[in-house]
Amino acid sequence: MHKKNKHIIDYDIEKLIEVFPELTPFVFVNKYEKQTIDFADAKAVKALNTALIKTHYNIDFWQFPDTNLCPPIPGRVDYIHHISDLLSASKLYKNNTVLDIGTGASCIYPLLGHAEYNWNFMATDSNKKSIAYAQKIIIKNNLKREIQLKHQPNPESVFNGIITPTDKFSASLCNPPFYKDETEAFEATTRKLKGLGKLTDSVTRNFAGQAHELCFKGGEKAFLHTYLYESSLFKTQCYWYTSLVSNKDNVKSMKKSLAKLGATTVKVIEMTQGNKKSRVVAWTFLTEKEQKDW
User: Fold this and answer.
1) What is the pLDDT of residues 202-222, one digit of tens each?
2) Which of 53, 110, 249, 275 is the most exposed place for a label (fewest CB within 10 A)?
3) Residues whose CB falls within 8 Å of the CB of residue 83, separated by 6 or more in sequence, listed in order
4) Looking at residue 58, what DSSP letter applies?
5) What domains are there in the chain, each with its CATH number?
């Protein structure tokens, strides 16, 4: 994890319960005599992450349906910290406005980015119900000025229909859909539960998630290449375009496409949380002069 990640050490379960008592029924003592939860249980996972966001990020209201994707707070905030490093290296220290693609019902990246670095956000989603839940979270936490929401009318587009000629963003964030369809998502969940020793006749994702949150025609690679192409249509309106990339094999094709599209710099930032390895790919189309004048 990033050195600034508050979750780099073990969870303080007692403190989390104090802030969010609803976590209590899911806590037990494991064979190592440590308090923990069942990470294969979607309700337990959601309770833990709700406790984390309330305890460490001063978010009093964070409610959305159990069927929607529940983001793991430690991994999501790791992305935020790495983007902060990227902005700092580019001397973008303050007054940053960030574009979050696919914010979801949880609105997680805007909440964490504002809490940790006081960034402002434009957050988008193609699902109107997710937008509605995110809007309620924003209103309940008094963040209407800091976080704006925008509906993406075309689920196959990323920036088209979102970025206007007058918009200017320090960075974009995105956690792409991993799977090409629900069958592939089901198979991945089955493998994960089998690895945890929790495979039963009823297969349930421990972080939940609906099809529009998890799937894109053609999978992660297809989404990423749409993302790359559309970013090239708005070369001077965002300093750093970035995305999480789950499958490392996609990085090579991304670099090749970005070279053709005219990216001036491409960076790959490795991320590790426990046994999970991922990466952020970041790129800019700005010339050195445009970067200095930003």
Assistant:
1) 545 555 665 556 557 778 999
2) 275
3) 98, 113, 171, 173, 240, 242, 280, 282
4) -
5) 72-293 (3.40.50.150)
